[in-house]
Design goal:
With 116 residues, this protein is of the alpha/beta class. It is 33% helix and 17% strand.
């Protein structure tokens, strides 16, 4: 929907079967004028860097607020968060990331994200 400015999505109920293929499908269907996005993928064990990169690449350049809950996504690495950081628009006003329990992430990428 071209007019949709806000999207909230929680994969919690299907987290055991939510994989990169579904994330690619979600990314392909993101509204083009999205300004506020809340996405919860907590515990999605099959969510990988490729899925995060696809999602990041599909975010609107109009995005002003992004709340991404990816805690417990054990297959995410620094490469996935680097793709997200590289795709974020300078229009972003509020960024909230929850990546508690993402054991493959290093302090270096966390520091880079906090530095903005």
């Amino acid at each position: 929907n071209v007019w949709m400015k806000t999207l909230e999505f929680d994969a919690g109920a299907i987290r055991d079967s939510f994989d990169d293929a579904l994330i690619h499908a979600l990314a392909a269907s993101l509204p083009p004028n999205l300004e506020r996005c809340v996405l919860a993928f907590a515990g999605c064990k099959e969510f990988t860097d490729a899925g995060l990169a696809a999602l990041a690449g599909a975010l609107s350049s109009n995005i002003q607020e992004l709340n991404l809950k990816i805690s417990g996504c054990k297959n995410l690495t620094d490469a996935g968060l680097a793709a997200l950081a590289g795709a974020l628009s300078s229009n972003i006003l509020k960024l909230s990331l929850d990546f508690f329990g993402c054991k493959e992430l290093t302090d270096a990428v966390r520091a880079a994200l906090e530095a903005g």
